[in-house]
Specification:
With 101 residues, this protein is mostly helical. The protein contains four helices and three strands; from the N terminus they run βββαααα. Helix 1 packs across helix 2.
Length: 101
């Protein structure tokens, strides 16, 4: 049985795959600081770029922060009725994002 490869998210663009023995969590290395991850987990890779990698460009860090913010806004707006979504302002959304951190 052939295993179907899952689509990789944008965080993978910033890591080199060192070895991939038919594993969904291969050994990877950060392209900026050469930090090794024996078992690649996208959430940990993303956290590394956002908080720990001193060499990662700011636009890489901000790219992930925009994704997180967009995801939170989408999640919030999924729970609004049509009427509520018309009257919610950007200030409301910013307040909600700050509260839900």
């Amino acid at each position: 049985m052939v295993k179907k490869e899952r689509k990789k998210g944008p965080v993978w663009e910033h890591f080199n795959i060192e070895s991939n023995k038919d594993d969904s969590h291969p050994h990877v290395r950060c392209k900026y600081c050469s930090k090794d991850f024996k078992r690649a987990v996208p959430e940990r890779m993303q956290a590394h770029l956002n908080k720990k990698c001193l060499e990662a460009p700011n636009n890489v860090k901000s790219q992930f922060m925009r994704q997180i913010t967009t995801s939170r806004i989408d999640n919030f707006s999924d729970h609004l009725s049509e009427e509520e979504s018309r009257i919610v302002t950007s200030k409301d959304i910013i307040f909600i994002l700050q509260v839900t951190k």
